[in-house]
């Protein structure tokens, strides 16, 4: 059986402060580091031996992956980093407190910005310090590809080709792969794998640093998917993610 583990990064400092993060390069919180170590323990208990790893260009995902691989003594495996696995770009919302934003614009508007399939927040100006165009890590990417805001639909259009052309084909020559990324980039992959509708994906939430396993047969046909960990705890953490945009 071939396996791909999808894992959202551990709690970041902006998660802790209930801020819109997007492409802002926020570090893990102390809790996020502990969550990554717990994920590694779960993977070790279930005998995961990875052949390759993929992550974004944002430190919260990179650090989560590094912690997991170090705990598993698998730091030597090849790691590919790409901007295509970055979080959805939240435009001018980046850095704002979600609760305060809900008080100003209403919970429904914040829900649409967070979970609406084709709803984009207001874009950043190109010369804004938060713009990826001003960030050295993206200097070799054509400017027309760098977002100043995104909907979930936009984020999926960015990351799904990389999944289809790079990550999933790698499963032909490997047995186990781990992908450490972000709530929305991973939700896009899950939407594709499980054929979730545009409407239903709005209610699907990924908790931080919980390994989500997808199994495939030798012909790369989907077999099953499941989270590692306590079911009740995972459901509660999903509920906490869903309520972040409330007043």
Summarize the structure in words.
It is a single chain. The protein is α/β, with parallel strands linked by helices and 247 residues long. The chain is 38% helix and 13% strand. The protein contains 8 helices and 6 strands. The protein has a 6-stranded mixed β-sheet with strand order 3-2-4-1-5-6. β5 (212-216) and β6 (222-227) form a beta hairpin. α4 packs across α5. The chain is globular, with a radius of gyration of 17 Å. It starts with a strand and ends in a 5-residue tail after the last helix. The mean pLDDT is 95.
**For the largest beta sheet, what order do the strands appear in spatially?**
3-2-4-1-5-6
Enumerate how many helices there are, as a single number: 8
Q: Strand count, sense and closure of the main sheet?
A: 6 strands, mixed
Beta-strand content estimate: 5-15%
Rg (C-alpha, Å): 17 Å
Q: What is the β-strand count?
A: 6
Low-pLDDT windows of residues: none
**Basic shape:** globular
Distance between the termini: 45 Å
The chain-level structural class is alpha/beta
**What is the averaged pLDDT score?**
95
Percent helix, as a range, is: 25-40%
String of helices and strands: EHHEHEHHHEHEEH
């Amino acid at each position: 059986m071939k396996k791909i583990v999808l894992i959202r990064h551990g709690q970041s400092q902006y998660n802790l402060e209930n801020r819109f993060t997007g492409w802002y390069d926020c570090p893990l919180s102390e809790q996020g580091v502990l969550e990554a170590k717990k994920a590694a323990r779960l993977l070790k208990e279930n005998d995961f031996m990875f052949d390759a790893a993929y992550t974004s260009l944002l430190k919260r995902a990179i650090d989560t992956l590094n912690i997991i691989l170090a705990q598993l003594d698998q730091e030597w495996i090849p790691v590919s980093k790409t901007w295509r696995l970055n979080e959805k770009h939240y435009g001018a919302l980046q850095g704002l407190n979600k609760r305060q934003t809900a008080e100003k614009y209403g919970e429904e508007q914040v829900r649409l910005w967070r979970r609406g399939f084709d709803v984009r927040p207001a874009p950043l100006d190109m010369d804004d310090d938060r713009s990826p165009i001003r960030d050295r890590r993206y200097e070799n990417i054509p400017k027309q590809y760098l977002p100043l805001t995104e909907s979930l639909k936009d984020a999926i259009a960015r990351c799904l080709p990389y999944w289809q052309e790079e990550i999933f084909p790698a499963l032909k020559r490997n047995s186990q792969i781990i992908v450490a990324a972000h709530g929305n980039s991973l939700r896009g992959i899950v939407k594709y794998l499980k054929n979730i509708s545009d409407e239903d994906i709005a209610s699907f939430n990924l908790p931080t640093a919980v390994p989500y396993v997808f199994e495939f047969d030798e012909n790369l046909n989907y077999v099953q998917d499941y989270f590692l960990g306590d079911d009740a705890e995972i459901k509660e953490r999903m509920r906490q993610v869903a309520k972040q945009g409330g007043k």
